[in-house]
Amino acid sequence: MSTTPEPINRITVEERLFSLVLALIATEIGLTKADILSTVQGYRQRYVHSGDNASLERQFERDKDDIRELGIPLETVEQPEDPGNNRNLRYRIPKGLYELPTDVSFSGDELMLLKLAATVWKEGSLSAESRRALTKLNALGGADGDPVLGYAPTLRVRDASFEPLSKAMDRAHVVSFLYLKPGEAAPRRRKVAPRAVVQHESRWHLFGTDLDAGATRTFLLSRIVGPVTVVPDLIAPESGPDAGQAALAELDALFTANVAEIEVLPGTDAAVRLGKRAADALGAEPTGALVLHYTDLNILADELAGFGPEVLVLSPPALRDAVLDRLLLVRDAHEHHELLEPLEARS
């Protein structure tokens, strides 16, 4: 028997977890760790018979945690003749606890559409509920290679902090990260107990308890600088089922309260894009100055400055000043570049 692992093809985390779930459902008496590592897809390719499999065992321990977090009832069974021996523990998933109710069924087309909707998300951005649903859908049938629409669209979470924050929230961890607020020269470290990660106005926000401030705060994920790390020896309080709704209600209230009045040049890109947004807010075609609601003044200032002379901000004064500051920075950078060009040509 070979003592070297098989060549590793690219096996995704989802495929490995799915193979593990199927194997543990299929057994009545359970599988030992050695059985799993040597036979299940995603492990056996790296398993070394009579060799060191410490890293693979650590992977299995992490996968067990992930399976349980998905709500899958993973059981451990001790051998009566050898109690307390972890090497001989057997793992199984009771089939009756994992099956769908008998009165729920899907046609082949319905399964394919549900799986397409679930696989739109990539890069670990699925919520625990969505990952559990996808695993159950796979168990119901339909191979991964089945054609659905020729290709599956993908939605990517651009903010690198999304996944570690979601995991920290699932595991009741307190996290620490550097956060750069507009106008500040350097980021400040925040220590936060995450309560919800929500999307508002096409941007992701973290709603949590700032432990240093002793109050809830909302953080824009795009302003988190660097890695999100877990704070050891601290456990976050229960967030409650309504934390996400509370976060969205707070953001909605902020959006409603913040009002900007602008003028745009007719027939320009700004008139089309911003006019459509104002029309959606008012429920009718806008006339005269456009009224826009916004959540974050600096984000709106960045957007309006991008339209250049097509936009004139009438109010509030803080937004007008912020747009002007950005336009002046562009002008100064352009003048600096024009000054350097003749110097570089002579050098």
TrEMBL record:
InterPro entries: CBASS_pafABC_assoc_protein, WCX_dom, WYL_dom. Residues 162-225 form the WYL domain. Residues 269-327 form the WCX domain. PANTHER family: PROTEIN PAFB (PTHR34580:SF3), PTHR34580. This is WYL domain-containing protein. It comes from Cryobacterium zhongshanensis.
